[in-house]
Amino acid sequence: MIAVSVNNLSISYNTEAVVSNLNFDIPEASYVAIVGPNGSGKTTLLKTLLGIIKPKTGNISLFGEDINKINPLWLGYVPQIKTLDRSFPATAIELVVSGLNRKWSSFIKKSDLKTAMEALESVGAKSFAREQLANLSGGQLQRVYLARCFVRKPKILLLDEPATGVDLVCETSINKLIENYNKENNATIIMVTHDWSAAYHHTQLVLLINKEQVFFGSPDEAFSDVNLQKTFSHLGHN
Ligand code: ADP
Asked: If you measure from the C-alpha of residue 39 to the centroid of ligand 1, how many angstroms do you get, rounded to a whole number?
């Protein structure tokens, strides 16, 4: 089964295309890395796959359904750590419950509390369930956002550099949590990453982009000198 099918996709904010000529099929349960230089359109592509940005041309289908007709619960999204809002006056458990109900509520049902606590436990975050978000470290906050995503059991998980900006120990365990979610739930994972080593070791497919699709296929082929040169040789990238 193809989880994500992208055909002739181009995306723009104004008139000029940010990224164009995207064509790829992602089989269900695969783990895919999106790699490219800063400003190459990676986050824009994730937002388009989430349905937040409409394509300029082309189309996207998820499990054979047009993206505009799918059940939004199929998709989960974890944004870049630097964009996570820690000033919001809520505790970790409240944030996870909001993922379950897709809204904030002052009253939490007992059954929701149990489910959310299990999700926090699964990412090693149970001990700080009652902490205010403002008091959490970057790595702790990222775990809570992962729990908020996992609790809905999305079939496709989109992550934007989930382990960037946290320390190495934390990075390793966040990568492990994502890999476990992939294996245990047969979920499709699409992750933007700067970490070529993690992409090489953990994923089955790599999409290289630089304003357009450079390569889509196995990590072995993706990380060849020729493909990396094509992807990163511009604007002073070394
Ligand atoms: P990446 O994630 O690869 O760093 P982005 O997808 O964030 O790249 O950005 C791709 C290009 O689109 C950049 O040139 C960026 O300046 C531009 N861009 C991103 N967001 C917007 C926006 N909301 N409006 C206009 N241009 C944008």
From this structure: 6
Q: How close is the Cα of 107 to the center of ligand 1, in Å?
A: 38
Which of 11, 19, 44 to mutate for ligand 1's pocket (most ligand atoms within 8 Å of CB)?
44
3-state secondary structure the chain: CEEEEEEEEEEECCCCEEEEEEEEEEECCCEEEEECCCCCCHHHHHHHHCCCCCCCEEEEEECCEEHHHCCHHHEEEECCHHHCCCCCCCEHHHHHHHHHHCCCCCCCCHHHHHHHHHHHHHCCCHHHCCCEHHHCCHHHHHHHHHHHHHCCCCCEEEEECCCCCCCHHHHHHHHHHHHHHHHHHCCEEEEECCCHHHHHHHCCEEEEECCEEEEEECHHHHCCHHHHHHHHCCCCCC
Find the mean pLDDT for residues 114-134. Answer: 95
Q: What is the pTM of this model?
A: 0.91
What would the pLDDT profile of 139-164 be if each residue is shown by its tens digit? 899 899 999 999 999 999 999 988 77
